[in-house]
Q: What sequence folds into this?
């Protein structure tokens, strides 16, 4: 988190996450709170639909080569920062 | 039907190749407009049959937005049609009476296009078998009923019937029984199918029941015609609102008609071949359950698929039930215009028949240019006919697997 280069990557990742959510679900970032992704359900987007987003993220960020996200990791996702953490961790592990 | 009061129809909704609302559906049906066009859902170059009844113009419907990614087109069409029917009946979302409101829905093959997509994705990357969990909730046959119940907040009994081409009418018949048994006050009943999946399209063709028509697509579906070419597959959804007469009158809503009779049986001799004996029985039992005789029937909406097996046997069965009167009862096959919407087809027939009774007009069986000598009744060939009496109609739906259903409806 303290590394300036990683901070930049994080913002890039979050920007791409916003694009993916918009592309996959036609939901603009102003319509949901990226610090509380649970509120996507208020837009009638259920948890199963969110798995589609995860699949897309795994593909776009090539996370699968590092084994993809575990079920436990997915359960802990609450914010786009959480997703960025997982992507950064997977990339540093690969 | 025995016990309980009458079951009223208070709302209608359709999504079809000839219109996505009741007004355009009726207008085009009376005018004999065909909804059969060249297939646009996929490249049909390798198929003998290159036409289908396709639903268009729903891309702006909320249920087709990406945020409803969990909803297959089969369920989305059902949601649109059910929404129309509920709006006409004046039922709002999250009604306080939700525990007494249910959904009875029929489908022949449910989310089959989602299944095809998942299979193709798997086949392309078998070493990376990540298929979305949404495939399950999109493919399952009860998705249609569930999505309607979830969207409108209905918590009463729901049932999914999957009896091929009889599914929707059987769901509707069972819904009537549930209301009569006082297990529900109101039920959204109908059927939906979106069968334009390439593998199954190929299988239908291999079964040799698909249209081989090479001319104008609009002329491809030719029920009761001597130059019939087989059935034409179609997408569509048709739903009605059923409620106890007492419930409808308490609400003060307009009653459009009644379902007064219903029967179902099973043709057990062959998985696809119809049986005249069982069709005679199911029609006779439906009339008996309505407490009427063939003389009371003013109009018949036939199953009328445009296959020789169906058209000749259904004609013979009608003759056996109606005797000399058979020649005097107008008979329509709406499939001549819509194509065969499988599980939705019987409910399309019921909606058409109810509109016909209320407007005094029998819609035509189009493309009936060269009547089959074995099919020699009045099929309302090519042009709508006025009904000399428009009180009672009979609706048939016969499905692969042997399920036969007949409903009897009456105008107010």
A:
């Amino acid at each position: 988190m303290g590394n300036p280069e990683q901070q930049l990557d994080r913002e890039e990742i979050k920007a791409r996450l916003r694009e993916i959510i918009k592309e996959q679900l036609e939901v603009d970032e102003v319509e949901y709170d990226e610090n509380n992704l649970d509120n996507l359900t208020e837009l009638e987007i259920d948890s199963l639909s969110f798995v589609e987003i995860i699949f897309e993220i795994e593909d776009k960020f090539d996370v699968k080569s590092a084994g993809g996200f575990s079920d436990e990791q997915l359960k802990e996702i609450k914010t786009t920062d959480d997703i960025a953490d997982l992507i950064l961790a997977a990339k540093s592990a690969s | 039907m025995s016990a309980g009061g009458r079951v009223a129809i208070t709302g209608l909704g359709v999504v079809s190749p000839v219109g996505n609302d009741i007004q355009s559906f009726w207008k085009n049906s009376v005018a004999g407009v065909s909804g059969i066009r060249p297939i646009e859902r996929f490249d049909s170059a390798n198929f003998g049959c290159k036409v289908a009844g396709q639903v268009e113009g729903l891309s702006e419907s909320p249920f087709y937005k990406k945020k409803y990614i969990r909803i297959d087109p089969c369920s989305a069409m059902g949601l649109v049609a059910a929404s129309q029917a509920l709006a006409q009946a004046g039922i709002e979302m999250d009604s306080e009476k939700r525990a007494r409101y249910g959904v009875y829905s029929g489908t022949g093959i449910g989310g089959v296009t989602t299944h095809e997509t998942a299979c193709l994705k798997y086949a392309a990357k078998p070493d990376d078998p990540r298929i979305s969990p949404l495939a399950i909730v999109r493919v399952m046959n009860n998705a249609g009923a569930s999505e309607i119940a979830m969207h409108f907040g209905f918590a009463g009994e729901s049932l999914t019937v999957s009896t091929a081409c009889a599914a929707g009418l059987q769901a509707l018949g069972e819904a009537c029984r549930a209301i009569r048994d006082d297990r529900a006050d109101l039920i959204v009943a109908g059927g939906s199918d979106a069968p334009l999946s390439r593998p199954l399209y190929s299988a239908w063709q291999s079964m040799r029941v698909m249209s081989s028509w090479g001319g104008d697509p609009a002329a491809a579906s030719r029920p009761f015609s001597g130059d019939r070419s087989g059935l034409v597959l179609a997408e569509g959804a048709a739903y009605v609102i059923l409620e106890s007469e007492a419930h409808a009158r308490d609400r003060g809503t307009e009653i459009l008609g009644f379902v007064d009779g219903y029967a179902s049986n099973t043709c057990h001799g062959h998985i696809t071949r119809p049986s005249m004996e069982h069709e005679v029985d199911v029609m006779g039992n439906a009339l008996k359950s309505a407490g009427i005789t063939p003389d009371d029937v003013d109009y018949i909406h036939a199953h009328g698929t445009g296959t020789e097996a169906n058209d000749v046997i259904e004609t013979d069965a009608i003759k056996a039930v109606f005797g000399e009167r058979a020649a005097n009862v107008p008979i329509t096959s709406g499939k001549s215009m819509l194509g065969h919407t499988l599980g939705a087809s019987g409910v399309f027939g019921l909606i058409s028949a109810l509109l016909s009774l209320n407007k005094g007009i029998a819609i035509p069986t189009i493309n009936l240019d060269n009547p089959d000598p074995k099919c020699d009744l009045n099929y309302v060939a090519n042009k709508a006919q006025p009904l000399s009496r428009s009180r009672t109609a009979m609706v048939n739906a016969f499905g692969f697997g042997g399920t036969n259903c007949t409903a009897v409806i009456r105008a107010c």
Notes: The mean pLDDT of chain A is 80. Chain A is about 60% helix and 0% strand.
